[in-house]
Amino acid sequence: MAETGHSDASSGPARQKVPAVPTVLGPRPLPLHMANSFATWATAPAAAQGFLRGRLDFTGAFTERATVMRQSVDAVDDDDFLARIRAGAAARQKALLQGIKLFLNHPYERTDTPWRAFHKQGAVTIRDYGVGKDGPVYPARPVLLVPSLVNPSHILDLMPRRSLVAHLKARGFHPFVIDWGTPDAEEKRFGLDDYICRRLAPAIARVAAHSGRPVPVVGYCMGGTLSLAASLHDAARHHVSRLALLAAPWDFAAADGAEGENGTDRGGGGLGSLLSTCALPAIRALPEGAPVPVDLLQVFFALLDPMQNDVKFRRFAEMDMESEKAAFFVTLERWVNGGPPLARRVAEDCLAGWYGDNLPARGKWTVADRPVRPEDLACPLWLAVPLRDRLVPPGSALALAGRVAGAHIHRPGAGHVGMMVGSSAEEALWQPLCTWLHAGDPSHDTKPEN
């Protein structure tokens, strides 16, 4: 793979340039996000008139805010107030378009930490990051990282100073990363069972055999839940020395902000209810064998907060386009919107089995015809449960702590993605993770290097 002179914050070989995406699609699906925003701002004047005439009802916390706003509006002429609303709405529409235009035309191209393909099966590649200037370098401590199936794997190596892979490598680890790729003809018909039994468990065994010892496995989000199941599978259970799960969902009935429920008989609320009741019928309407396109998945995630992208891209329009902040925004949004299609059976397993029936927390999720029992885990477990996670409620991930004796719980003060690549990720996640991983190997100090 070609190298450039662009270096990470740590010493070592240059990061590898990633080819530019010919057509940057985002935020996806773009028509939906634009329609949400334009409909909101186009109707703002009518809503303002209703407010002036006392025709809008407010409940809960909005009651007090409406009272304060009413006091402010009373000091302004009605016509002047409505004129300001019209002008503000028009300005927001213009700012959104400007932000999207700047995003689509931003020149930044991300780079990879150098890697080689260690093994490939189907579309799944095990990336080997133990590469130096003169070829492969194998430090003493291998570690296998497993991302979600839904988004690209490079969230683990997003960009300089935002890379868990680079951080691990700089501290004496030899990172391997599962890159799920775009499902091939066979994988388009895979379910969760197939990915665990025919891809992930064999990958763990292969990396361990290459390393000559059991290896620690670090799973992020859905990748963590899959890693747990793979670590209990006969093909891999003796090849995992430690298991770290980062914001890995388990109890899909856990409400936002809950501190854990050890198995229930109901399906999830919020995101879970939305996905199982709305997304599942749409996915089952697809042609047999057709994968689920990322645009369809993004529609349902957008429904959680229809105006989120409006706010994000208007803020982006105000940034210095040559700043690191703007480059980070562009890179992260391209990652969010760049996921591969998802095998239909995988989507059905997740939406019906996980979100709909809450099979994992109820002890009814099976892989290879065996129940997935976290209490049978044969290695130490580390749970990173971010305090401000909107995608995986803390109660969902914390549910595993009640199932595994001696599980270590770490609570980063961040969100689901911010924990991994945010400005405080090194302190909030990377360093504590390294400390715990080193503690399992007597050949290393228990503190990460500076």
Automatic annotation (TrEMBL):
<feature type="region of interest" description="Disordered">
    <location>
        <begin position="1"/>
        <end position="22"/>
    </location>
</feature>
<dbReference type="Pfam" id="PF00561">
    <property type="entry name" value="Abhydrolase_1"/>
</dbReference>
<dbReference type="InterPro" id="IPR051321">
    <property type="entry name" value="PHA/PHB_synthase"/>
</dbReference>
<protein>
    <submittedName>
        <fullName>Polyhydroxyalkanoate synthase</fullName>
    </submittedName>
</protein>
<feature type="domain" description="AB hydrolase-1">
    <location>
        <begin position="142"/>
        <end position="251"/>
    </location>
</feature>
<dbReference type="InterPro" id="IPR029058">
    <property type="entry name" value="AB_hydrolase_fold"/>
</dbReference>
<dbReference type="InterPro" id="IPR000073">
    <property type="entry name" value="AB_hydrolase_1"/>
</dbReference>
